[in-house]
Amino acid sequence: MRQSLIIGNWKMNGNLAENEKLLNIISVSPILYEDIDVVVCPPSIYITHVRQQLAASKIKYGAQNVSAYKNGAYTGEISTTMLADLGCSYVLLGHSERRSLNHESDGQIADKFAAAVQANLTAVLCVGETLAQRQADETFLVIAQQIQKVVEQVGIQAFKQAVIAYEPIWAIGTGETASPEQAQEVHQQIRQQLAKYDENIARSIQIIYGGSVNENNAKALFLQADIDGALVGGASLKGEHFITICQASINH
Ligand code: PGA
Question: Would the pTM count as exceeding 0.85?
Answer without folding.
Answer: yes
